[in-house]
Write a structure and sequence with these properties.
Elements (H helix, E strand, L loop, with lengths): L3 H56 L2 H11 L25 H21 L1
Length: about 120
């Protein structure tokens, strides 16, 4: 014969496991909803990425870039007086070459002065 204590314990265990399963069911449903929402968001982002790539391709066509360059970056032809012979010793960092540093600063000031005269 089954005792009352065993019956009470068994019914308590069934209620407890039912409550746990009930909570587990709703937490799984919540996670499934979040997964579904994330998948939809991912699909939307993929569509937007496709649209953005098409727009980027249209914005970076060489013809459009050339038109914008001509409109916003007016450039002048280089004149022969702006060209100087390249002297690699001017750009080497050598503490003994103080003269070269002075020549470099003089060269830069000449170039800047020519630009100021042209404007």
């Amino acid at each position: 014969m089954v005792s009352k204590k065993f019956t009470v314990f068994f019914s308590f265990f069934i209620c407890l496991s039912g409550s746990v399963l009930f909570g587990l069911k709703y937490s799984v449903m919540s996670i499934e909803d979040r997964i579904h929402y994330a998948k939809k968001a991912l699909e939307t982002e993929k569509k937007n990425q496709h649209i953005l790539r098409a727009e980027w391709k249209a914005l970076t066509t060489p013809d459009r870039i050339q038109k914008l360059t001509l409109k916003y970056l007016p450039m002048k032809q280089i004149e022969p007086k702006q060209l100087k012979e390249y002297d690699s010793s001017l750009f080497h960092n050598n503490s003994k070459n103080i003269q070269h540093k002075k020549r470099l600063s003089k060269l830069i000031s000449e170039i800047l002065s020519h630009e100021d005269e042209d404007d």
